[in-house]
Structures are given as C-alpha cells and as structure tokens.
Amino acid sequence: MVDISSPNYRPLYEQIKVLLTQSLIGGEWRPGDVIPSEIDLAGRYKVSQGTVRKAIDSLAGENILIRRQGKGTYVATHNEEGVKLRFLRLTAASGQKEVLNSEQVGYKKVKADAHKAGILQIKAGSILIEVKRLLTFSGRPLIYDHIAIPAAPFKGLNAARIEENNGSMYSMYETEYGVRMIRAEERLTAIAASAEVAEALHLELGAPLLSIERVSYTYGDKPMEWRLGLCLTDDHHYMSELE
Amino acid sequence: MVDISSPNYRPLYEQIKVLLTQSLIGGEWRPGDVIPSEIDLAGRYKVSQGTVRKAIDSLAGENILIRRQGKGTYVATHNEEGVKLRFLRLTAASGQKEVLNSEQVGYKKVKADAHKAGILQIKAGSILIEVKRLLTFSGRPLIYDHIAIPAAPFKGLNAARIEENNGSMYSMYETEYGVRMIRAEERLTAIAASAEVAEALHLELGAPLLSIERVSYTYGDKPMEWRLGLCLTDDHHYMSELE
DNA sequence: GAGTGGTCTAGACCACCAA
DNA sequence: TGGTGGTCTAGACCACTCA
What is the per-residue pLDDT across A28-84, written as a single tens digit (0 to 9) for each? Predict the structure, then answer.
C-alpha cells in the first residue's frame, strides 16, 4: 500500500513498474527468465492483481517483458530467432529474406572525445572500445559499421570474443554482461562515400550512402552504445513506421 | 452482448473497437469532435465501462482518439498545433525550431501507372492527382516533394485549394474531405540528385539526397496517399525511434 | 457541483500450456 | 489437473474541467 495523499502522487501501477524495473536492473530476473506470476507479485507488493497487470502491460508494450498465455511473463531478450535483429530496419527492396554475415575490420581502445562522451553520458577521456566491421547481406557488402561502447561495463571484452558471437553484439551484451538494450534512437542522413568506405563497399568515391547514427539505451534509459552505419541502398531500403 | 462460444471468438473489447472505428469511418464523429462518454458508450453497446475503456485505450494508443481527463475523448486531428507535423521526422541538426513554407511547382491529373495503382489499391488507369512542391525550412529549400492521391475521394480539389491551405495537405484532407490519415510507412534510401531536383534545391548534380517514399493510410488501413520526398540533409537529419 | 476520464479493487470465468 | 495469463464485470473513489 502507498500513501495516496502524498504531494508527489504517482499511480500505484507506475510505482510497481519502477519496482519491477529495479529488479531487472539488479539482475534478479535476467533476459530470458520467467518472472513471478501476477498473483505472486500482487502478494509481494501488497496490491491487487489488476494493478500488477497494468504495470506489466506497460512494460510489455515497451518490449521489456513478454507475456505468454498459459506459461508466464518473460524478460525480453535479443537472443531468440525473430527478435535477433529487432533494431535492423534495412530490408531488401525485393522483400527477400537474407543471410547476414559480419567481418571485423578493426578493434581498439581509445579515450572518449567530448562528442561521444556527451552522448554516452560518461567523462571525456574515459576508455571506449571501438569496433569497425563490414556487414554482408547474402554475400554482398552493404554496411560499414563503426561501434563505440564504454569499456567499464564490458570488462574482458576483446576482438576474439566478438568473433565468437559472430558479430551479434546485442546478444553478447546480454549473455556475457547482462546489459540489455531496450530502445534506440537513429539519425539518418545521406552522405557521399569517403575513400575508406568506398573501398570497403566496392564503390566509387562520392557514391551516395545512407548514414545511420544510432544511440542505444539500456534499462533506465541509460545510453550504452554509439554506432555509425554507412549503408549502400541501391537495392535495399530503411523501413520506418509512423504512427 | 456477444456470443462467446462462437467458433471465431474475438474479445468483446476488440469488437467494440471495430464498432467505434465504423462510427469514425461513417463520419458519426469527425476529427476534433468529442465522442460520447465511456458510460454512454457502455450503455449503447451493453457492455461494462471497463470494456469500453479498454477499446478506447487501444485506439488512443494508435493516436486515433485522444483522451482528456475531465473533458472527454476526442477524435484525433492533424489540425492542432503540435500535432500538425506529426509525420515529419526531419529536424535541424541544431535542434532549432523552424518555420516551414510550401511552394507549389506542379499540379496535374494523370492516369495511375501499375506501380502507384498497386500501392494505392486502385485500378490501373484510375485518375490520380499529382502535386509537386518545394518545402523551405526557415527560408532554405530542403525538400522536393512529389505527392499522388486518387482523385475520386477528393472531388473538387485543385491547385488553388492547396494554396489556400498553405501546403498543409493532411489538414486539408480532414477539414475538406473528412479523410484522416492514421499512420504511414516510409522507405528511405540515399540517392544522387537528378538535374530537376538539383536545380530546385540549388545543388550540384549528383549530390547525395535522402529519398523518402511514404504511403499514408486512413481508417481501416486503407492506403490514400503516395509521396516521394527528396531531402537535403547537410544540416538536418531524419529521426527514427526504435523500440 | 455535475460530469468526465483515471485508478484500484475483488471476483468470476475463459483460453492456453505442461506435466 | 493445476497454474498461467486474458477477459469481463461491478463498484468505489480520485483528479480534472467547466459552468
């Protein structure tokens, strides 16, 4: 029970939502786990099942939890088939399903410049891990990716580890470090290919490319990854749904 | 009341949702109107207030209805400040607010080719209205727009009418024809500027542009507008939220 | 104060799943 | 068969708006 007459009143179900989120951050339930049933949670927090239900509904709507009738409520994960590429909006113009492959072309640790430090909300000069890679779709190189993450939460990460995970960064973050990305923001522009990228993607200098700058956020809306993808879009496009 | 043992069982609130949508399509409640209160609707459909509430919640989540505590539930509209440019994802890199202006550079009626007819789900050869225009942001030309809509639902539309509405197409569709767009899909690619566009946007031939192909849908997910925007993105970007 | 949407509860029953 | 989430109801009370 909660004091309803408090000056900074918040609906009960929102408070429950915060408590659930804290259990997720704290690692009580990890990606892929089943969380306790609605009735159990109602008992734990001393509220009705309907209130817990509303909190879970909200988290399920944000793709943080997944409900499965008859089985239980699960912590969402990037590991399952079908959800693996949840943040990838690039699809073939033909609609064909494609085979993705990742080839690592660079790995280093650097000090964060002011720009990236600001975006990732860390101190300028903190250590970043930066990865460059080439993504091929059905054998054709299409994306030149540049990824930066703070080194601190990813202790022990190295180039070989990424290779082992076959370039599936989000799976690796979850499985090995318990860091789950819940949402991302992307900024798209059209640019002309630089020499470095033109060579990697087998293009002419100055060819138009789709530039996708992405910032990914983990629980509590904390930014955890910066990414710049330069994409060839002659037979692919970026899909965006407006609602 | 509804037969729950029917073979093709659907939750009551979904059936209510369909009934509400039909009233929207039929024009019983037009954009900007207040719909009856939850209690009234519960009485009309012979269900509990909670069931109506769930149906309305769902429609509100799709931005089709808007709830205002203490006042009532409204049919969403593109006419209000703040919602006017709901589908415009292009923002200044600086984050500055901008003044938009539209200059019409072309207006004609044509027969639909197979491609557009397929997209708009009309017969090839049907009459389309096609508009070309130049959008300027704070005085600078940034988007070269090409718009196509079926002529049939927009009887009496002409170039002057568009000018009167100052290029705000979605407002005009609603206000003058009762056609409200509820969602859209966009496909983005990077292309090189053609001669026509380069001249309009004061660019060099071959400069990289963001190409945005949009299909907009009205109630019942019926496609009603095709649009191709070619955008200069040297100091603007397209924002996309991934969840 | 009357009317609206917003929250919360308690309880019944249904649909789905696994053992 | 028992446990889970999903639907539906009825009723109480709160917060907001406006006359």
Answer: 999 999 999 999 999 999 999 999 999 999 999 999 999 999 999 999 998 876 677
Chain A residue whose CA is closest to B239: A187
Q: Under an 8 A CB cutoff, do B186 and A86 touch? A: no
Domains, chain B, in order of start with CATH, read 12-75 (1.10.10.10), 90-238 (3.40.1410.10)
Across the interface, whether the CB atoms of B238 and A187 are under 8 A apart is answered yes
Which chain B residue shows the shortest CA-CA distance from A183?
B243
Q: Is A120 on the interface with B (CB under 8 A)?
A: no
Between CA B59 and CA B6 the distance in angstroms is 25
User: pLDDT for A145-177, tens place per residue?
Assistant: 999 999 999 999 999 999 988 888 999 999 899
Q: What's the predicted TM-score (pTM) here?
A: 0.89
Q: Render the burial of B72-88: b for 16+ CB within 10 Å, e for the rest.
A: ebbbbbbeeeeeeebbe
Flag if B210 and A189 touch (Cβ within 8 Å): yes
